[in-house]
Design brief:
The structure holds two protein chains of two kinds. Chain A is about 60% helix and about 15% strand. In chain A, helix 13 (about 300-365) runs antiparallel to helix 14 (about 370-400) and helix 13 crosses helix 16 (about 425-434). By secondary structure, chain A is of the alpha/beta class. Chain A has helices spanning about 15-20, 30-35, 60-75, 80-85, 95-105, 115-130, 135-155, 165-175, 190-205, 215-225, 235-240, 260-270, 300-365, 370-400, 405-415, 425-434, and strands at about 1-10, 40-50, 50-60, 90, 185-190, 210, 230, 245-250, 275-280, 295-300. Chain A folds into three domains: about 1-160, Beta Polymerase, domain 2; about 165-305, NAD(P)-binding Rossmann-like Domain (Rossmann fold), CATH 3.40.50.720; about 335-434, no CATH class. Chain B is mainly α. Chain B folds into two domains: about 1-115; about 120-275, no CATH class. Helices cover about 80% and strands about 0% of the residues of chain B. Chain B has helices spanning about 1-25, 30-60, 65-85, 95-110, 125-160, 165-170, 175-205, 215-235, 240-265. Classes of the chains: A alpha/beta, B mainly alpha. The interface of A and B includes residues 270 and 305 of A.
Chain lengths: ~425, ~270
């Protein structure tokens, strides 16, 4: 049994190829069962996000499975293999385990530490479970991956600090105002930048958004889109009096917001704090506005600088996370190996026990006159013989120092004694016992 | 001398609590702040027992000399911390208040701790009221002082466009400013009551309400500072930085009224050789 990951991500493939190979959520069930029908696959699961497409598979014949999976991707997406084969990466066994742990903990993400990926993996796993294409190994693997992700979240500060300009802005606003729930935002300008910033703030739960723009109609359009309120450009002072957060992104060549104007506004506001976010180039807000008491002014470069610093912190935390991942990989691999040896031992013991019982019963039926005591002696004798015979091979098998040979022994044992494969339920019991 | 055992036990727990809060400030693990709060609570219970034991042993409200006053002040500060912990979710508060209480305890520990016969002027119906109002007010203003210090740090971080480890550990400006205002609205009436009950008591003890002894004078200065702070806040909106600075200045004046006057200036409030 081998775990195989075949996939591509933002590091190995350009967006055009990622798009072509992405699986739609609505077709996931179909894709999963198609992959499941490949003869070499025992279990499979597909993770498809805008940054990565990965197929997780469990197979007894890895070589064959890899080829079949490649062909499956090509066939399913109607794209010749040679067009994307170079972008594919292939991970097997321990490397694959490490990879999925890293992905789940967001260590392999484009923005390291971003939280969405865990949810995406969870829903990919849920779909595989629903389509019954995942089995005992993927089940265990994914649950460990969720566990690792949780450990990384709680034991490192990887997701603590904001690393995008808009999330830095929100974090700064929260540092000034606490919760953003009752805050009023004033947007000056109605361009794309303003819209983006506004959407982020709406998501953070601000109370109201005021929009003002030199061209009134555009302000009205944007206000409608984001359920805001429009203010005439000439009446901007009214907005400044009401707002807690001001986002300015006009293409004005002069400063729109001047020092003495804000000094006056602050008096009217009874010194209630105000946070200016100037994302215009050239600047809309006169820099000295930031020196006024209870006024906080950040321009786009300031925000970017904070974001970059936070990114460096995150990379530091990512190194701590790698240690956690390594620890968990070792644990999983250990389980995975015991999974192979233990069931074999159990199957072997079961087979011997059955033979013993059967032969003993035969003998008892030929000799009904045997006393209870004699029967007990025969029981003990046969058990002792079976155990003595099994003792040496089992001891050898349980020695974990010789992994390469262990596979060979297991294979030989299974062939020579014609041991049946364990069912998933039996494996599950094993798992719990361990 | 049961009271001294309980007192030592309380000091030890305040020390442990302070250590836990300090480690919490470094590692930011919530569990540490919760443990610290539990430890501080145990310390507080022991401290309460110490005060009760001393009350029983001395047969008067044990706030008559500097050792007792410092201990009582520390007890009030921890009490306020425990209440604030229930009301607000500001975990770092303990990291500021616990060490202050600890320092007061250590200071108290170094002073003569014997229970002496009570000076006749102190045996008054008004004495317990006076000290309770005055020290409760002091403790609340200590809280305002801490929030002021945190405000100035956080504000400096924001103005200098840093978002480092320090800012991450402190509450938002809004929370700190609200806390400052809250403390002022509770602390000011208490301080006022403390001064009034003191004056009434003075009338009984010395036959005059007000005698401009240094303690009285400095209390009045402190009172005016806080009154000005409240007034400015309500009328012209002195909030944020100015309010934070005022809370710190007010606290300085308060501490001078409490300690400086006793140690440096002779007067009626200096009862024992301390």
């Amino acid at each position: 049994m081998q775990l195989i990951i075949l996939g591509l991500n933002h590091k190995t493939a350009p967006i055009e190829i990622r798009e072509r190979l992405a699986f739609q959520e609505s077709e996931m069930e179909k894709a999963l069962s198609q992959a499941h029908s490949l003869p070499s696959l025992k279990e499979n699961m597909i993770l498809s996000t805008c940054n990565r497409v990965e197929v997780y598979a469990i197979s007894r014949e890895p070589e064959k499975a890899i080829q079949e999976l490649k062909n499956f991707l090509s066939r399913y997406h109607e794209l010749p293999l040679k067009e994307f084969e170079k972008s594919l990466y292939l991970l097997i066994g321990e490397e694959a385990v490490r990879h999925i742990f890293q992905v789940a903990s967001s260590l392999d993400s484009m923005v390291v530490g971003e939280p969405q990926i865990l949810g995406q993996i969870k829903s990919a796993y849920a779909m595989a479970t629903e389509s019954r294409t995942s089995g005992i190994i993927l089940h265990r693997l994914l649950h460990r991956a969720f566990h690792v992700a949780k450990r990384v979240r709680t034991e490192t500060r990887i997701g603590d600090s904001a690393v995008s300009v808009s999330s830095v802005a929100v974090e700064l606003a929260e540092r000034i105002f606490g919760s953003l729930e009752q805050r009023v935002v004033l947007l000056i300008g109605a361009g794309e930048m303003c819209e983006l910033a506004a959407r982020h703030l709406v998501a953070s739960g601000v109370e109201k958004i005021l929009v003002t723009n030199r061209t009134y109609d555009r302000a009205v359009t944007l206000a409608q889109e984001i359920k805001g309120e429009t203010i005439r450009f000439e009446e901007m002072a009214l907005g400044l009096k009401r707002a807690d957060i001001v986002i300015s992104a006009t293409d004005s060549s002069q400063h729109l917001i001047r020092h003495d104007q804000i000094v006056k506004v602050m008096k009217e506001r009874k010194q209630k704090p105000i946070f200016f976010i100037d994302i215009a180039d050239p600047r809309d807000v006169e820099p000295s506005v930031g020196d006024i008491e209870n006024v906080y002014l950040y321009n786009i470069d300031d925000l970017q600088k904070v974001a970059n610093e936070n990114m460096k912190d995150r990379e530091k935390e990512a190194r701590k996370a790698e240690v956690i991942v390594q620890e968990e990989v070792s644990k999983f691999v250990h389980w995975y190996q015991s999974l192979e040896i233990t069931p074999t031992i159990i199957a072997l013991k079961k087979k011997f026990e059955e033979i013993r019982k059967r032969e003993l019963e035969k003998m008892f039926s030929f000799h009904p006159h045997l006393s209870e005591k004699e029967r007990q002696s025969l029981e003990a004798l046969t058990s002792a013989i079976v155990n003595k015979i099994l003792h040496d091979p089992l001891t050898r098998l349980k020695q974990k120092d010789d992994e390469a040979m262990a596979d060979f022994y297991l294979d030989t044992l299974r062939t020579l004694f014609q041991l049946p494969d364990l069912t998933a339920e039996e494996r599950m019991e094993e798992d719990e016992d361990a | 001398m049961m009271n001294i055992y309980f007192f030592k036990f309380a000091s030890l727990f305040y020390l442990l609590g302070t250590l836990f809060y300090s480690v919490y400030m470094i590692l930011l693990k919530d569990l540490l702040s919760k443990l610290a709060a539990v430890i501080i609570t145990i310390g507080f219970v022991s401290h309460t027992l110490a005060l009760l034991a001393r009350y029983v042993e001395a047969d008067y409200t044990p706030v008559t000399n500097l050792h007792e006053s410092l201990s009582f002040f520390a007890w009030m500060i921890i009490g306020i911390l425990l209440i604030a912990n229930l009301k607000y979710k500001i975990k770092v508060l303990g990291a500021f208040l616990a060490p202050i209480a600890l320092i007061l305890m250590l200071f108290a520990f170094a002073l003569p701790k014997e229970i002496l016969p009570l000076a006749p002027v102190l045996r008054s119906f008004w004495h317990p009221f006076h000290i309770t109002f005055a020290f409760l007010g002091n403790a609340i203003f200590t809280l305002a002082f801490c929030s002021g210090v945190m405000y100035l740090i956080q504000e400096h971080q924001l103005k200098s466009k840093k978002m480092g480890a320090v800012a991450k550990r402190l509450p938002s400006l809004k929370v700190l400013d609200d806390l400052n205002y809250r403390a002022l609205t509770f602390g000011f009436p208490l301080l006022t009551l403390g001064i009034i009950t003191g004056a009434v008591w003075a009338e009984y003890a010395w036959g005059r309400y007000w005698g401009w002894d240094p303690k009285e004078t400095w209390s009045l200065i402190t009172w005016f500072l806080y009154a000005a702070m409240l007034h400015q806040r309500l009328t012209v909106g002195w909030r944020g930085r100015k309010a934070a600075i005022m809370a710190i200045v007010g606290f300085m004046s308060l501490i001078f009224t409490f300690l400086g006057v006793n140690l440096l200036l002779p007067g009626l409030h200096a009862y024992s050789n301390w």
